[in-house]
# Entry
Amino acid sequence: MSRRIGIWVGGSLALVGAFCFVALQAGLIVNTTKSIPMGLYIKTSNFEKGRVGDYVQICPPQTPVFLAAKQRGYIGAGYCPGGLGYMLKRVLAAKDDVVSVGGEGVRVNGQWVENSVPMVSDGAGRPMPFVAIEGRKLEQGELLLMGKQSRKSFDGRYYGLVQSDQVVAVIQPVFVW
# Structure
């Protein structure tokens, strides 16, 4: 009886492993963070970096704010330079958009963004990084990344603008909850 269970468990693990391998090769990504809606996403072949509203996968740059975020656990370890993990975010603003980021929240083209007031400290009581941008018209290649659904997302409110060359892939939801 225990031999049958062992064969069943081993076979099941092999099947799950094979599925995960095929899913990764096909460009499927599982998001379990609150930065964008949780669910299953797929990398698209439509690779226009920096379209407002797109979900993107980025390799964060090796700057002090991102390295500190990794140490604090906001970003996982991964394959990006500096051992940083990929981040999944939504493009909130791009070329020619006018952005303001401050203690009262984020404005894009004069419109306040929902859930955009930055946290002063994280869950462990540590001060969050602060970015101040006032009325800046974004240039080609500059992006402001931020989700609207979670006040606790580590996003452009804390690290500012990123460059479109940090975008690894544009992703689209397959199934979200």
Summary: The mean pLDDT is 87.
